Amino acid sequence: xxxxxxxxxxxxxxxxxxxxxxxxxxxxxxxxxxxxxxxxxxxxxxxxxxxxxxxxxxxxxxxxxxxxxxxxxxxxxxxxxxxxxxxxxxxxxxxxxxxxxxxxxxxxxxxxxxxxxxxxxxxxxxxxxxxxxxxxxxxxxxxxxxxxxxxxxxxxxxxxxxxxxxxxxxxxxxxxxxxxxxxxxxxxxxxxxxxxxxxxxxxxxxxxxxxxxxxxxxxxxxxxxxxxxxxxxxxxxxxxxxxxxxxxxxxxxxxxxxxxxxxxxxxxxxxxxxxxxxxxxxxxxxxxxxxxxxxxxxxxxxxxxxxxxxxxxxxxxxxxxxxxxxxxxxxxxxxxxxxxxxxxxxxxxxxxxxxxxxxxxxxxxxxxxxxxxxxxxxxxxxxxxxxxxxxxxxxxxxxxxxxxxxxxxxxxxxxxxxxxxxxxxxxxxxxxxxxxxxxxxxxxxxxxxxxxxxxxxxxxxxxxxxxxxxxxxxxxxxxxxxxxxxxxxxxxxxxxxxxxxxxxxxxxxxxxxxxxxxxxxxxxxxxxxxxxxxxxxxxxxxxxxxxxxxxxxxxxxxxxxxxxxxxxxxxxxxxxxxxxxxxxxxxxxxxxxxxxxxxxxxxxxxxxxxxxxxxxxxxxxxxxxxxxxxxxxxxxxxxxxxxxxxxxxxxxxxxxxxxxxxxxxxxxxxxxxxxxxxxxxxxxxxxxxxxxxxxxxxxxxxxxxxxxxxxxxxxxxxxxxxxxxxxxxxxxxxxxxxxxxxxxxxxxxxxxxxxxxxxxxxxxxxxxxxxxxxxxxxxxxxxxxxxxxxxxxxxxxxxxxxxxxxxxxxxxxxxxxxxxxxxxxxxxxxxxxxxxxxxxxxxxxxxxxxxxxxxxxxxxxxxxxxxxxxxxxxxxxxxxxxxxxxxxxxxxxxxxxxxxxxxxxxxxxxxxxxxxxxxxxxxxxxxxxxxxxxx
Length: 935
Hints:
Elements: H1 2-16, E1 28-29, E2 34-37, E3 39-41, E4 46-52, E5 72-79, E6 87-88, E7 97-106, E8 112-120, E9 127-136, E10 144-145, E11 152-153, E12 166-167, E13 174-176, E14 183-190, E15 196-203, E16 209-215, E17 222-226, E18 232-236, E19 249-254, E20 259-264, E21 272-276, E22 281-285, E23 292-298, E24 301-308, E25 318-322, E26 329-333, E27 340-346, E28 350-357, E29 362-368, E30 374-381, E31 392-399, E32 409-410, E33 420-423, H2 426-430, E34 435-438, E35 465-468, E36 474-483, E37 489-497, E38 504-512, E39 518-525, E40 530-533, H3 536-541, E41 546-553, E42 561-569, E43 574-580, E44 582-583, E45 594-601, E46 605-613, E47 619-627, E48 630-641, E49 646-649, H4 652-655, E50 662-671, E51 674-682, E52 688-691, E53 701-710, E54 716-724, E55 731-739, E56 747-753, E57 758-761, H5 764-767, E58 773-780, E59 791-799, E60 805-810, E61 818-819, E62 825-832, E63 836-843, E64 852-861, E65 865-875, E66 879-882, H6 885-888, E67 897-905, E68 910-918, E69 924-931
């Protein structure tokens, strides 16, 4: 009856609630290295990372003590709000120092206390041959060595993070204490007889170390929890040594060393976790091969609240986290063929059901807000593609007392077993505050191949420790209405999409890059509306001359999609570029640089750079250029962007003293958060190409179209390929091409680049592979454990008789631009207009095959009105292009109609993009695809 009532109430909710679409959340890594979070409170604003160039793969259970991976790197303090720049706490050195375990406690005064096991020697600034334990009472300004026996080790255990207040807290043998005693930890000491005994210590704020208890060698002595004040701790094992040891069991350990029995039992094991209430103890047992259970222990009696049989795999199907006051528990119960239930337990009132969801979401973590009024629910969202290398946590804020969340926004990334929120204020996230999430490294990947509101096209690396927000804030980096060089006259058209079945009040802010003035407006979009705004700067703001960035902010919980086309209007056709919107949380920061392999096109071109402040407090950045011999030109250029504004640098090559050299650009944010947009303009045609930041190449990437082809109206399409090695060591990149029609065998080549070398391969399909026609290019540099491989991008263009070009970017696609069964891609920006023709390209990024896969193409206008739908057969491992799709589908009569192109594969994989081509000039504008969110 309870299940039936839940199903009826859930159905009623969907019948009356407004239909709001889920969205794909954009993000950017906070560092270009791999990071391991320290043990720390999750709601800390400042968080501590051990950053290393080498990926590591924790075992999804308790790791073997005394065998930490010997990784070297740096201990770095970050700020979730972005108001303080990242700070390296120990002197940087090459290749770094070893950190086996680290923890941070933040006092009420704001003081940060740090405990680290490391080979760093603060006396000499070098490293030692052994691990020692350092304590800093002042956030890393000073360090002291703890007086522990040299054979002592603190084990860095790992378990799947199911939420709660501490990062990596489950199984941790360093527990966060209070302001008087910042840490309590368990350490194993190897005796002269090669026996290992466990000792538990308290580390006071002054740095003094106190031995609290000693445990018998074979008694599974561990710290397994604490109370709400962080002054009492839950332990297992037999206190004492030898014949004097007390019985095995679970006890309370006070900060003065007193022990208090909770439950005497030999059935203790390393897979226990719990917390202390005012009258008892909650205990969770997740031992592999045994029933999973959640119990409450009071007066030496154990009451089993939930229990399930042994489960396959390492992730629990039942788990619990404390209520905000630690007096009760929030619990998840899920499993095959049953609804997922959120349960609540109090010792005085027993177990009750908050909700159950018949969709059975795979809830994997609960995070309770400090207000006690809401919980962030983290769901595992498996993708259906057999060789999809990215899987998908999805997030929703649940207000206590309401039905189950109707939608989950997707944080689509390369999720490993150690995934977890690193810094999160649940209550503030409702208002749009950022959060930090660790995707965790994944080493076991397939062979080199790419395996709501759409989004994610602005993400340049889909793994790492990333910063994002549940509130969408977009930036169109280029919106213009002004004259330019060589007689050019620039305008921008804007296309907006409201994917919800409710009206959308959209806040717009224009930041002029030349006058630094700010202009604000509110615009209303109807339900499911797709709107074209020609000459948008003049129509929306009444500006007759200006250029800059457009900020778009929907209300909380809502989203919008946007793209623009900026063009030089000659009166006899246009030369332009499309620019998709960037989320402000996909911005570059101080430890995550960007590269532009195709930045400088050489003679007869100019390069402009637009830098938009995405953090609201101003940005400082630096620039470095590279050519065939490595770093070239000036490397001391450092500039500032005003708060909330934009800076445009015209002719960047002259700023860097490059002359006519071709090369790449490395963009480094030094302070704040920034979005950098690079535009290369052909001086003979005034045709602009917007280069987006290069995507990381640690996994296989695909450039969907490379060509050497003579086409209609005298066009001669060619592809230039741009490569850049941003690292300090030589790197190679493996490249493989095949024709879209599979008429020739695959061809492969490896290219070696020296440190910081940039290479341009003109007309690469002909010169590198000796081919003509149209193909795709697959490439990979290093692997996912290498965060600094060669970056690759391309430009496809038509060469004119006078040497001028008209073309567009052809970037390497990220994982958000690839769909499998049950997924869709959406393309926004195409307009049915007799002055243009639109081509749709469909490319299968997988292996070559003998069959063809069916791909559904749908075309929508405002009001979610479907004006066409049809199927296309795409060769497996190949591709096809639908030329002039609106004429081919008898839609050309719908003049000035903005549309959405939706692409859905039935089997296999598909990547897609569109080009909108001016019929008079043959100039294409590239329109990228974004992954659609799932309900």
